[in-house]
């Protein structure tokens, strides 16, 4: 009876309970169901011909397969064309999603995409060496373009693509998907609100699971432009600045990766004009799961995002406590971010939002990745001039 004195009045007589601001899923539920009378997702009207966005998806590889699923589940999107060289894969996807024959194209038929005025946008998830051609053809055909990184093989071609996008007045979105991850987004808000004070240190970890196929490694563009770019962009986005000096070390422990002149293990640092220092380690092969961590430290404290697991289950036995392993790979770890970045592409096409990743950012991230590759090759710190 000693706790009776702590009894409170009925919850019906208290202030109505509200969800916490961090519960974005509940907020989406309230707004989407019309239960929030004061908030709506958008304050602009969408033109009638853009209420359903017709898109063409190029390639069903690692990223393309994720995008197809998300396109099919998004009520704002309609898959008008699906371009893929593997006929067997096309037929399996056709059966899974009950797609008409008219949707399926082989690469030599892809001119249909660019000639069709009903296509509003294209999603490019092909090997890197095909990006530039598809980006430029899409922009010249007055299509909005969503492209997996990198936009092109080198800095000058990337700059040319963004110049063309400006001339054609079409959006060109480079898919740095980690910006759209809910936990990373919340961490950035806290940093930008000054919760840790002036940032002193940033640490990121990005370790692949499973090891990518050697066929993918061969056409990936190298670990700095394939993997490191995500961490570079993430750190610069969180801080709101770009580094002045970078240093990297890299090695290939896996013989097959060494044989194609790439690395499987990288460590690099970036120094910023503000004094902030970032440190990143990358591996192509983490056998315990997809290891993705971010930590920001300052004089007021620290904010961090730890690894995610399939569900918050703890099993306790005579052998101790155990949890499910980390999420296996990027499709599950960044499940929500892939959905969010595609929604952002829709918002841009429908005129509901400005492009959140400008060309200037992509060009700088590309330059930084190249500087890190140079540092790894020479063993010297590299100063970056923008």
From TrEMBL:
Domain Gfo/Idh/MocA-like oxidoreductase N-terminal: 53-172
Record's keyword annotation contains ATP-binding: no
Top-level division of the source organism's lineage: Eukaryota
One term under GO cellular component: cytoplasm
Residue ranges of every copy of the GFO/IDH/MocA-like oxidoreductase domain listed in the record: 184-303
Keywords for this protein: Oxidoreductase
Keyword Oxidoreductase among UniProt keywords: yes
GO molecular function: nucleotide binding; oxidoreductase activity
GO term, biological process aspect, one: NADPH regeneration
SUPFAM superfamilies cross-referenced by the UniProt entry: Glyceraldehyde-3-phosphate dehydrogenase-like, C-terminal domain, NAD(P)-binding Rossmann-fold domains
UniProt cross-references to Pfam families, sorted A to Z: GFO_IDH_MocA, GFO_IDH_MocA_C3
UniProt-listed InterPro entries: Gfo/Idh/MocA-like_OxRdtase_N, GFO_IDH_MocA-like_dom, NAD(P)-bd_dom_sf
Gene3D superfamilies for the chain: Dihydrodipicolinate Reductase, domain 2, NAD(P)-binding Rossmann-like Domain
Family under the similarity heading: Belongs to the Gfo/Idh/MocA family.
The protein's name: Oxidoreductase
Organism: Petrolisthes cinctipes (Flat porcelain crab)
């Amino acid at each position: 009876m000693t706790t009776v004195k702590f009894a409170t009045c009925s919850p019906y007589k208290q202030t109505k309970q509200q969800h916490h601001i961090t519960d974005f899923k509940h907020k989406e539920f309230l707004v989407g169901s019309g239960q929030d009378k004061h908030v709506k997702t958008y304050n602009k009207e969408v033109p009638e011909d853009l209420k359903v966005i017709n898109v063409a998806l190029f390639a069903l590889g690692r990223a393309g397969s994720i995008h197809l699923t998300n396109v099919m589940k998004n009520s704002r999107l309609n898959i008008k064309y699906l371009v893929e060289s593997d006929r067997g894969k096309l037929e399996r996807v056709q059966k899974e999603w009950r797609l008409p024959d008219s949707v399926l194209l082989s690469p030599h038929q892809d001119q249909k995409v660019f000639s069709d005025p009903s296509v509003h946008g294209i999603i490019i998830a092909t090997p890197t060496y095909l990006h530039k051609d598809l980006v430029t053809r899409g922009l010249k055909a007055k299509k909005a373009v969503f492209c997996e990184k990198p936009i092109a093989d080198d800095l000058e071609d990337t700059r040319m693509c963004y110049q063309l996008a400006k001339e054609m007045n079409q959006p060109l979105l480079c898919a740095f998907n980690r910006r759209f991850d809910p936990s990373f987004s919340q961490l950035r808000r806290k940093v930008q609100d000054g919760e840790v004070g002036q940032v002193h240190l940033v640490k990121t970890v990005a370790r692949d699971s499973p090891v990518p196929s050697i066929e993918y490694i061969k056409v990936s563009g190298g670990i700095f432009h394939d993997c490191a770019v995500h961490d570079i962009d993430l750190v610069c986005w969180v801080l709101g600045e770009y580094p002045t000096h970078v240093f990297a070390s890299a090695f290939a422990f896996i013989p097959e990766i060494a044989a194609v002149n790439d690395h499987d293990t990288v460590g690099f640092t970036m120094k910023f004009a503000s004094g902030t220092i970032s440190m990143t380690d990358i591996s192509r092969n983490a056998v315990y799961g997809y290891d993705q961590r971010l930590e920001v430290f300052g004089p007021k404290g620290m904010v961090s995002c730890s690894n995610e697991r399939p569900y918050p289950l703890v099993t306790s036995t005579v052998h101790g406590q155990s949890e499910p392993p980390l999420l296996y790979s990027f499709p599950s770890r960044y499940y929500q971010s892939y959905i969010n970045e595609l929604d952002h592409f829709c918002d841009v096409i429908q005129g509901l939002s400005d492009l959140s990743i400008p060309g200037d950012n992509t060009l700088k991230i590309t330059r930084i990745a190249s500087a890190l590759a140079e540092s790894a090759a020479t063993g010297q710190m590299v100063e970056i001039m923008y």
